[in-house]
């Protein structure tokens, strides 16, 4: 079974990998800030919407991390 990245050229894969890594780092920083905000919000106001908001974004980051791994695998196959 062909991977979803098999139709990309090597240059396209490299640029996609670079973008995905940058987006992943930014998303992890935002999630970390959300977790800190959620802790402070929970301490001050008790349970609220902000307490559970980071839990919504963590699975998205996991999928992004798996995409980065798949791009790296595809690049390794092409070398």
Write the layout of secondary structure elements.
Layout lengths: L9 H36 L3 H30 L1
Describe the 3D structure.
The protein is mainly alpha-helical and 79 residues long. 84% of the residues lie in helices and 0% in strands. The chain is elongated. It starts with 9 loop residues before the first helix and ends with a helix. The mean pLDDT is 91.
Oligomeric form:
single chain
Q: Shape, please?
A: elongated
Could you say which structural class the secondary elements and strand pairing correspond to? mainly alpha
Give the SSE string. HH
Unreliably modeled segments: none
Biggest sheet: strands, sense, closure?
A: none
Number of strands: 0
Distance between the termini: 19 Å
Radius of gyration: 17 Å
> Average pLDDT across residues?
91
Kindly state the percentage of residues in helix: over 70%
Strand fraction band? under 5%
How many helices in DSSP terms? Answer: 2
Features:
single chain, 79 residues, mainly alpha, 2 helices
Give a quick precis of the structure:
The chain is mainly α. It is built from two helices and no strands.
